[in-house]
Design goal:
single chain; alpha+beta; Alpha-Beta Plaits; ET_IronSulfur_Cluster-Binding; 4Fe4S_Fe-S-bd; transport; iron-sulfur; metal-binding
């Protein structure tokens, strides 16, 4: 099985512009355009959240696709499953709106759609090669890679910092 890609967050790069949230909402709108989404009767929902962290940080939070996903185990209607791409998904037709998934999510990234009475979450934009939030991030705070690719980039960065420190 190939390594699945994950959305990683480089918190030091986030400036809190909310471009990721806007792109997510537009991608999950009926029209898939900004102006079309604004005019829709049911406002499209972002599945990613940017939270303020004292004293001056902005932190994007998105479903971490937990290996042992508590939301999936807690869902009493069987609406939350893992698909063939290893993505935890919510089947809105099966969701009964009990919010148990919301209560057990350690990251608080499952939303409640008041219009439909259903839970929603990041679905990694299945119709796109790269999730909309990642594509929209102007600072590169969101990265879509496999764990080995991401870890390698972190090791490379750390080794360059060591080399630079030794050279001083």
């Amino acid at each position: 099985m190939p390594q699945p890609k994950e959305i990683f967050v480089k918190t030091d790069r986030c400036v809190g512009c909310m471009s990721c949230m806007l792109a997510c909402a537009v991608e999950h709108s009926q029209s898939k355009t900004l102006f079309g989404a604004i005019a829709e009767a049911r406002a499209p929902k972002s599945r990613l959240y940017v939270e303020w962290a004292a004293p001056d940080r902005k932190i994007p939070l998105v479903c971490r696709q937990c290996e042992d996903a508590p939301c999936m185990h807690a869902c009493i209607s069987g609406a939350i499953t893992r698909n063939e791409d290893n993505i935890v998904v919510t089947n809105a037709d099966k969701c009964i709106g009990c919010w148990t998934c919301v209560m057990v999510c350690p990251y608080g990234v499952i939303g409640r759609n008041m219009d439909t009475g259903k839970a929603y979450r990041c679905d990694r934009c299945p119709d796109r090669e790269i999730p909309a939030c990642v594509s929209a991030c102007p600072t590169g705070a969101l990265i879509y890679e496999t764990v080995p690719e991401y870890s390698k980039s972190i090791r490379k960065q750390a080794s360059q910092e060591f080399a630079r420190a030794e050279g001083e």
